[in-house]
Fold this sequence. Notes:
By secondary structure, the protein is of the alpha/beta class. It has two domains: 15-140, Rossmann fold; 148-242, Orthogonal Bundle (Arc Repressor Mutant, subunit A). The chain contains eight helices and 14 strands. It has helices spanning 31-43, 54-63, 80-89, 105-113, 126-140, 174-184, 193-201, 211-223; strands at 7-8, 23-27, 47-51, 68-72, 96-100, 118-121, 124-125, 148-151, 154-157, 162-165, 168-170, 191-192, 232-235, 239-242. A hairpin with a 2-residue loop joins strand 10 and strand 11. Helix 2 packs parallel to helix 3. Residues 1-5 and 9-20 have low confidence and may be disordered.
Amino acid sequence: MGLSTVITMASPQKSGTHQVSSHVLIAEDDPAVRSAVQRVLELEGYRVSMVNDGAAALAFITKTPPDVVVMDVMMPFADGMTVCREVRTRGIRVPILLLTAKHEVNDRVAGLDAGADDYLVKPFSIDELLARVRALLRRREPAGANTVLRVGDLTLDTARREVLRGERPLSLTKTEFDLLEALMLRTGLVVTREQLYEEIWGFDFETGSKSLDVYIGYLRRKTEEGGESRVVYTIRGVGYTVKA
């Protein structure tokens, strides 16, 4: 696949919204794509490391977790989804942006199911890539104040990034935690799908995207796993709400 069919090149404009020292790992086996992404990220002021296969990506992330991982799905030795699953199994919360040539919704949902925080379908524009990297960096920044949110017996500690249902700890991915936090900050209010996509993913998803529904399903299964009552509700045609 030629570079022009993968990336729409444009002159990146510095956003000034990220910390200059932010470290991005590129895991991509196509040298042309790898070099192009490296070039634009470095122009934006990011520190960039690169690997060209899934095994090397897993080893790098495990030893020295970067601030963000930009990873292709199709790589030798271990594909991107396998790396995602193993990274999450090891308890590493680094934000992961998957690059995929597959356009079907099921393929993209599978990537999120594997533990990715976001995905980008090839061909993609550099502006969109940079926007999604910035969004992932914003989401990993600690909150300015420590807050403990409670809805019934559901407790979310923003500083410790811990969630309890009664005395039972919940193991949430970064995206699941961020989504639950966004809802609990507005307990009793309806949060629209558009608001959640913008706040959690930092970028407008295409019409008909099922990613949010998938994560809501994950939250319900985990918050209700011990037989507890429902706290995450769907307001049909509008969005979602959390209430005791």
